[in-house]
């Protein structure tokens, strides 16, 4: 099979790493890819939003499947354009992808289709939003309606901070994404990330993990795209998984099909495990980043048949995926300043060392000079991942590898997995 994989982050590097192991694959091209991916597949130059170019490239390479990594490609309508061209695609249409691309759509969707979630208000101007704060108690959750690369959420401890976040959003602080905002009730509980595949009709659970969204140790600092993950996450006992499947996954896939946009791809359910059961925090229309990294390390089954089945409507023919009975941990290394202003271009040394069979280093936001020097971008740069017999061993291996990477301008959290280890 010929596969075109769209995207350039750590998630896509992990997908490429797993796809490249499949005996079904003869040619794998990533567009635009990254220096880590360049070592395991061909690269094409097109960005995820260059829809016409990507469709053309898929045609030219006679792609049997296009795998969409990032949400921007979904919102740009890549799956729609590929469907028009008759090219199988793993990834939802822009209409189905509204489950991620509009938080306001998703809140209304959850209400319409009876998915448990927090109380909310949608606000289209600053004054309405200030007034609506009276409907909530602190801490206040202020969210951009649109796509903001995981950075469109502020948890404000008091009213003054919430008003400042609202003012910032309407002044363009979240870019275009924040011209409509959603205020939400703060949910008490433990966060989790659960994944499910769907081919438009049949759905299948596809693993779970826990992310660390805040920038600094102890869950302090601003929200980020994710600073580290581990899987399995003990928050997901059998009961929580079953309830999430019933109340969130199946209702979402049924609802979006009833709304005329059957879902093909992976749905990422970010949920809060509360005293009243799982509640939806938000949906994402793609694998989580860096959740995907730990899932790919633990996935024993060949990934490719699942991707193909979602595209072709044959998911019911496949068994449930098999997961390795091992733990996996991912530690994100980012440029100091992320998720705020951070200087791109610092040199990372030692990332390409041989860390042994239990460690994988995925590139997230890097570039290389002609002499092979690796440079960081202005955000998340590397994902140092490891497996082990249990979480403690996986974590020890990951942090031992992190210690060997020489990057003074980078930072990382030192407490990935703390909730599980504290149990
Ligand atoms: N790690 C959270 C996300 O991918 O949005």
3D architecture notes:
The chain is α+β, with helices and mostly antiparallel strands. It has 4 domains: 2-98, Rossmann fold (3-Layer(aba) Sandwich); 119-184, ATP-grasp fold, A domain (Dna Ligase, domain 1), CATH 3.30.1490.20; 188-317, ATP-grasp fold, B domain (D-amino Acid Aminotransferase, Chain A, domain 1); 327-421, Glycinamide Ribonucleotide Synthetase, Chain A, domain 4 (Alpha-Beta Complex), CATH 3.90.600.10. Helix content is 29%, strand content 28%. The protein has 13 helices and 23 strands. The chain has helices at 10-19, 51-60, 71-75, 78-85, 98-101, 103-112, 126-132, 159-170, 238-258, 291-298, 304-312, 391-403, 418-422; strands spanning 2-7, 27-32, 42-43, 65-68, 89-90, 120-123, 140-144, 153-156, 181-184, 190-199, 203-211, 214-216, 220-223, 228-231, 264-274, 277-284, 327-335, 347-348, 359-363, 366-368, 374-376, 380-388, 410-411. The strands form 5 sheets. Strands 10, 11, 14, 15, 16, 17, 19, 22 and 23 form a 9-stranded antiparallel β-sheet that branches. It has a 5-stranded parallel β-sheet with strand order 3-2-1-4-5, with helices on both faces. The chain has a 4-stranded antiparallel β-sheet with strand order 6-9-7-8, sandwiched between helices. Strand 12 and strand 13 (220-223) form a beta hairpin. Helix 1 packs parallel to helix 10 and helix 2 (51-60) packs parallel to helix 4. The longest helix is centred in the middle third of the chain and has 21 residues, at 238-258. The mean pLDDT is 96. The chain binds glycine. Glycine (GLY) binds next to loops.
